[in-house]
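Prompt: I keep going back and forth on a fold encoding question. Comparing notes only helps if you start from a blank page. Show me how you would write down a chain together with its backbone fold. Please set it down just below, with no commentary around it:
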Amino acid sequence: MRKFILISIVFCFMACKQDQVIQPMEGNFKLDGIGNEEAWSSVDWQPMNHVWLGDQPTSDDFEGRYKVLWKNDGLYVLSEIKDDILMDQYIDPLEKYWDDDCLEIFVDVDASGGNHQFNNNAFAYHISLDNRVADMGKDSLPHLYNHIRSRRTTSNNLSVWEVYMPMYGEDFLHGQSNRAVELKEGQQIGFAIAYCDNDESKERENFIGSMPIPGEDKNRAWIDANLFTKYHLVSSSN
């Protein structure tokens, strides 16, 4: 009986810990912030509903969800953000960009985890309302990352973001010519997505992410890539 119980527990644990998967992007794609490509309809929406900073927002204040697909040349992200107030108070895209409304995407191309605060072991791309992308560099200063392409459309309080992200490893050098990592079926990557929400304050009031973060300090994804969700890149047949 004990052996049976032990086997059942192990089986349940393995099933519950199964890594998530990312399907391939197939067919034509246009980066226009509309998201009406057939490829998007083949995958389910995933929620952004874990509070990393602030209080749980009401549905009138914020709701977020996302999809992600892959091709050899990078990741493709679609996100729908319901936000009643869009805030962009800092004209300089490198000044306190995390305190404006922005979409933040975390990627670790080899799912190696570890510290990535001031290095390129992983990236935390902050995508502003005008599609400029910032992150901290090896010199501990913020920089713009122009290899990330983003488009946003907004109707009433619903914003649709489409993002194309070539993937780089820890050898990435800002401002120099870099070769993107070619993604392949079976590869494992680290990924997370979040939204910085500011409703007319000096600082963001909420930070809502795609995954739970243990402990009291939940604003750690920009430092610790061990927190990212691990995904396997699969073929359409899986």
